[in-house]
Automatic annotation (TrEMBL):
Signal peptide segment: 1-36
Protein role: Cleaves the gamma-glutamyl peptide bond of glutathione and glutathione conjugates.
Organism: Dissostichus mawsoni (Antarctic cod)
This protein's pathway: Sulfur metabolism; glutathione metabolism
InterPro entries the UniProt entry points to: GGT_lsub, GGT_peptidase, GGT_ssub_C, Ntn_hydrolases_N
The protein's name: Glutathione hydrolase
EC number: 2.3.2.2, 3.4.19.13
Record's subcellular location: Membrane
GO cellular component: plasma membrane
Family: Belongs to the gamma-glutamyltransferase family.
């Protein structure tokens, strides 16, 4: 029996079945700055917009833009705000990756993900947890890059004074605010509750009885407010070489950590050109390893190659050479691994060590009036990092080094752990811009890819594209379905032999902005707060002018054995079918074929073993170049 010819829905399965789990948090909201112009659909904007995790922080970012700030100013202000509104996701004790497109269209990546301190625990990887959960411990703390990078990008692209960006957050932190609902819910998850109550971050998130606070209770960050005030006045050096740094190091030492002042003073932001891949007539700019950018590009390119355009794959030459993952030959070799009728053990896919599932992170997308676009993902890794709190500074520390676990055999000082973060910027031939990224740990790449495919290729409006339920495969190769996922598809998958997982926390969150013909649509994921559905911003689907690969006619003849498995008429899926049906239906089509293979392949390919390899190769190249 001949191998299946690539089909769109097959590829779609790939995506959906794609990655592993995640626990992120937060979400929702959109805010934008200017009033809808008469020429723009209602709810869209003409000048600038911010899409952060929360309405509050989107608003703070927007206010900054309104006061004349640049997109970078807006992004920094929104992220600082997020560090108190969604303190479980990110903060100045963590790191980020920014992808920034300037007015002229040059795209740079500012990578300030945490690094391994000069001295770190011997046999660190022996401490790696063997099951999914939240991991505490000072040995996992990476050197925080957040503030140093804010300062660097602010110097380059900022328009408002540095201190201005901190003002709204200092006020929130000091005066307190009602504990947000999604944080309140998260704190009640037994796993999170236990994590918080037994760690020092309980100082912030617990009441006097050392019990986690509830939604609506007054949440304050008094110490952090002081710290931010000092940094606002003195700059990032207060953190990297001043009193705040010393206090922080003292607290880390007290918690048993090894980081030193020297680690802080020597932290450097890595600035590099974005990698660029072509997806039809659209260009996607992505951050290089150790980010999840290449994985996202891989998914989309694989998607595109399979179904949509046999002849027109148009890959930037440089990328082909540089990046194994997104090389055609590699993608072809993956295709070759796919049999239509059976699945294989992990070893067949060289997926000997599936990566551990991962959690956390936030994303913000910002576009300003002058055309500066910022796609920024930021994280302290797991929910509340490793639960290490610095009482002298009010900073919650990351546990980023945990990302080496099950992905690395060794750890070197100065190295950055691999990441799923994938803040990208797309541009269409006609000048349209699409700024997108997400949170949710290992779930980021699949959630972002699905949102993009739903929107750009399947014609769903941006809001629906992001809101569509997802399916993902965890590191045990269990298939997990987001609530409301189409039941008949679940049944179909089970029939094919998939084992359902039991994942409860679909906290994947995607935030995106799109500008076309002078109109901006901003969508923040509504997963955590359906009330933002009422936002008028979400009500106006805008057609993005990217050429859909579905423009070409499609015929999807199914082989008899598979066809007979299902009742619905997938024999002649057409473009109009795809366009008029929800993602679930498309997935249903996908799922008629052996997802068995595709998920395994994906967790193999996506498995960070490979990413990690790429990232090491990359770092070797970079350090050679630097010498
Ligand atoms: C599965 O497909 C392969 C070719 O891809 C074929 O050699 C094999 O016989 C098929 N197995 C079954 C059980 O149909
Ligand atoms: C919250 O706590 C802060 C700091 O103690 C206090 O100033 C503020 O009044 C409180 N807000 C409310 C609503 O209780
Ligand atoms: C703390 O515990 C005491 C005794 O159980 C109880 O009376 C009090 O209401 C609790 N306080 C809070 C804030 O839960
Ligand atoms: C999927 O894999 C399971 C075992 O992992 C196997 O029993 C089942 O037959 C496979 N289904 C298909 C359609 O290949
Ligand atoms: C799997 O690994 C083996 C040995 O390292 C290698 O020869 C083979 O090409 C790999 N296969 C794939 C699909 O990468
Ligand atoms: C679920 O998928 C099946 C098969 O594609 C389709 O017939 C059905 O309408 C879908 N249900 C919903 C609620 O979308």
């Amino acid at each position: 029996m001949a191998k299946y010819k690539p089909k769109p829905w097959l590829v779609c399965c790939f995506i959906s079945a794609g990655l592993l789990c995640a626990v992120a948090l937060v979400c929702l909201c959109v805010v934008s700055r200017t009033k809808a112009d008469k020429d723009c659909p209602s709810g869209s904007f003409t000048r600038a917009a911010v899409a952060a995790d929360s309405r509050q922080c989107s608003e703070i970012g927007s206010n900054i833009l309104q006061q004349g700030g640049s997109a970078v100013d807006g992004a920094i202000a929104a992220l600082l705000c997020t560090s108190v509104i969604n303190p479980q996701s990110m903060g100045i004790g963590g790191g980020s990756i920014f992808t920034i497109r300037n007015k002229k269209g040059n795209v740079k990546v500012y990578n300030f993900r945490e690094t391994v301190p000069k001295s770190f625990k011997t046999n660190l990887l022996d401490d790696c947890p063997t099951s999914v959960g939240l991991t505490t411990g000072s040995q996992w703390i990476g050197v925080p890059g957040e503030l140093r990078a804010y300062e660097e990008v602010h110097k380059q692209y900022g328009k408002l004074p540095w201190a201005k960006l901190f003002e709204p957050t200092i006020k929130l932190a000091r005066e307190g605010f009602p504990l947000p609902a999604h944080l309140g819910t998260l704190l009640q998850f037994p796993i999170v509750k236990g994590h918080v109550e037994k760690s020092s971050i309980c100082d912030i998130f617990c009441n006097k009885n050392r019990t986690v606070l509830r939604t609506g209770e007054n949440l304050t960050f008094l110490k952090l407010a002081d710290t931010m005030e000092t940094i606002a006045k003195q700059g990032a050096k207060a953190f990297y070489s001043g009193k705040i740094g010393q206090d922080l190091i003292q607290d880390i030492e007290a918690a048993g950590g090894t980081m030193t002042m020297e680690d802080l003073t020597s932290f450097q932001v890595r600035v590099e050109d974005a990698w660029t891949v072509s997806l039809g007539s659209t260009k996607m700019h992505l951050p290089p390893p150790p980010s999840g950018g290449p994985l996202l590009a891989f998914i989309l390119k694989l998607m595109q190659e399979f179904p949509f355009n046999q002849n027109s794959l148009n890959v930037d030459q440089k990328i082909q050479i540089a990046v194994h993952l997104i090389q055609d030959s590699f993608i072809n070799s993956i295709n070759d691994r796919i049999s239509s009728n059976l699945t294989h053990e992990n070893s067949y896919y060289n997926n000997t060590k599936p990566s551990r599932d991962n959690v956390g992170t936030t994303h913000v997308s910002v576009l300003d009036e002058e055309g500066l676009a910022v796609s920024a993902s930021s994280t302290i890794n797991q929910v509340f990092g490793g639960g290490v709190y610095s009482p002298r500074t009010g900073i919650i520390l990351n546990n980023e080094l945990l990302d080496f676990c099950h992905r690395a055999d060794t750890v070197r000082a100065g190295e950055q752990p691999p990441s799923s973060m994938t803040p990208v910027i797309l541009e269409s031939k006609s000048g349209g811009l699409f700024v997108i990224g997400g949170s949710g740990g290992s779930l980021i790449t699949s959630a972002v890819a699905l949102s993009m495919i739903n929107h750009l290729w399947l014609g769903m409006n941006l809001k629906d594209a992001i809101a569509a339920p997802i399916v993902f495969v965890d590191s045990n190769n269990k298939v997990n379905f987001e609530p409301d996922f189409n039941k008949s598809v679940i049944k179909g998958l089970t029939t094919l032999g998939h084992k359902s997982g039991n994942w409860k926390f679909f906290l994947n969150v995607v935030n995106a902005l799109e500008k076309e013909n002078g109109c901006i649509t901003a969508v923040s994921d509504v997963r955590k707060d359906g009330s933002s559905l009422s936002s008028p911003l979400l009500k106006s689907p805008l057609k993005f002018p990217f050429k859909s690969p579905l423009e070409s006619p499609l015929e999807f003849p199914l082989g008899p054995p598979l066809e007979s498995l299902f009742e619905s008429p997938f024999k002649s899926l057409s473009k109009s079918f795809l366009k008029s049906h929800s993602q679930c239906d498309v997935l249903a089509a996908c799922c008629k074929i052996p997802l068995n293979n595709t998920d395994t392949i994906l967790s193999g390919v996506m498995g960070s073993k490979l990413t990690r390899q790429r990232s090491l190769d990359f770092e070797t190249k970079v350090s050679k170049r630097r010498r």
